[in-house]
């Protein structure tokens, strides 16, 4: 990363980028690119499109940097753009039926989790795969809130700012996400023991 | 407090966001298997999410730069117009006000001209006031008065 910016405050760097300083923008991209990429990867769950969507996020950042008013932290603003792009992508996939019908149904918050009569053991599948699959089946709004909490370690207030929702809604989305996950994982009897 | 209510607090407790009833939730987790499972689930989800991460290509910024140049070169005229929309709106308002001013001034002067013509020519006033229904005497009078004016 460019050393001349390491001593500068983030507000100053953003101001330089707003004024058209390409090096300042490069510094911002390099600082946040992996965080943005991982957030996309966790929400969408498809590594093949992460690079393209990360690129799209930063193109939107540079194009709307003039509108950034320093009211929230830069990462909050960048994460908000990232989440919006992810939601657009999920909707696009749903429209083009890239998701299977069962995936789409499982993204409906009212959809009941599946219950298998045959209880499986953790040995049948690798634990990580099971958890990842269960997370991927969560409705996007629950999944996003949970990922911002568990992966990004953001406090409820920051999550509320990123998603532009109330703190109470963040609490209930995270609680419901966990409840749904527990329901999904019930069939793996050893997992939560 | 009932289990259903405490269960909702467990999620907040897990995230370190619970302000009150912390001891109550702690004690409840010790005795309630369902709530203890939520706690274990949180650890598993956290581990899983943090475990599998990716890194972008070192050429990402170069790709972004290239894409920006490409977009700028393909930017249609309409985007430039939108880019200058504020300035354009001010200019349009000024032009509108200018045209409105010109229109007002010209309509006032035309009224004045009409008034001047009417006051200077009694024959026109007469025709207007009679509604076009003139007697022979009126026509004679008007012809004579026009002849005098010439």
Automatic annotation (TrEMBL), chain A:
RNA polymerase sigma factor 70 region 4 type domain location: 129-181
GO MF, one example: DNA binding
One GO process term, biological-process aspect: DNA-templated transcription initiation
Record carries keyword Nucleus: no
Keywords attached to this entry: DNA-binding, Sigma factor, Transcription, Transcription regulation
A Pfam family of this chain: Sigma70_r4_2
Keyword presence, DNA-binding: yes
Annotated transmembrane regions: none
Domain of life: Bacteria
Residue intervals of the RNA polymerase sigma-70 region domain: 29-95
Family as reported in the entry's similarity comment: Belongs to the sigma-70 factor family. ECF subfamily.
Name assigned to this protein: RNA polymerase sigma factor
The organism's taxonomic lineage, starting at the top: Bacteria, Pseudomonadati, Candidatus Kryptoniota, Candidatus Kryptonium
Automatic annotation (TrEMBL), chain B:
Keywords, sorted A to Z: Membrane, Transmembrane, Transmembrane helix
TM region positions: 77-102
Superkingdom of source: Bacteria
Full protein name: Zinc-finger
Organism: Candidatus Kryptonium thompsonii
Taxon lineage: Bacteria, Pseudomonadati, Candidatus Kryptoniota, Candidatus Kryptonium
């Amino acid at each position: 990363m460019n050393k001349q910016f390491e001593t500068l405050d983030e507000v100053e760097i953003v101001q330089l980028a707003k004024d058209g300083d390409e090096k300042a923008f490069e510094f911002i991209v390099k600082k946040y690119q992996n965080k943005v990429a991982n957030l996309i990867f966790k929400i969408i769950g498809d590594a093949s499109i992460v690079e393209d969507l990360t690129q799209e996020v930063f193109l939107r950042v540079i194009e709307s940097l003039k509108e950034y008013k320093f009211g929230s932290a830069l990462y909050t603003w960048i994460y908000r753009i990232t989440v919006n792009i992810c939601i657009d992508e999920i909707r696009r996939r749903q429209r083009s039926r890239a998701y299977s019908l069962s995936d789409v149904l499982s993204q409906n918050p009212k959809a009941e989790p599946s219950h298998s009569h045959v209880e499986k053991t953790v040995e049948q599948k690798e634990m990580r795969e099971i958890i990842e699959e269960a997370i991927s089946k969560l409705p996007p709004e629950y999944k996003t809130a949970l990922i911002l909490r568990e992966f990004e370690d953001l406090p409820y207030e920051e999550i509320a700012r990123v998603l532009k929702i109330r703190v109470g809604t963040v609490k209930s989305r995270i609680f419901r996400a966990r409840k749904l996950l527990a329901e999904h994982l019930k069939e793996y009897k050893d997992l939560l023991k | 407090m009932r289990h259903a209510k405490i269960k909702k607090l467990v999620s907040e407790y897990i995230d370190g966001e619970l302000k009150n009833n912390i001891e109550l939730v702690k004690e409840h987790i010790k005795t309630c298997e369902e709530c203890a499972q939520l706690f274990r689930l949180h650890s598993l989800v956290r581990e899983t999410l943090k475990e599998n991460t990716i890194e972008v290509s070192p050429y990402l910024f170069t790709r972004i730069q290239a894409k920006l140049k490409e977009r700028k070169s393909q930017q249609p005229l309409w985007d430039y117009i939108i880019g200058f929309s504020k300035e354009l709106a001010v200019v349009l308002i000024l032009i509108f006000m200018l045209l409105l001013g010109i229109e007002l001034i010209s309509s006032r002067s035309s009224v004045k001209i009409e008034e001047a013509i009417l006051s200077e020519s009694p024959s026109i006033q007469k025709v207007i006031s009679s509604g076009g229904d003139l007697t022979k005497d009126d026509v004679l009078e008007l012809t004579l008065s026009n002849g005098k004016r010439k």
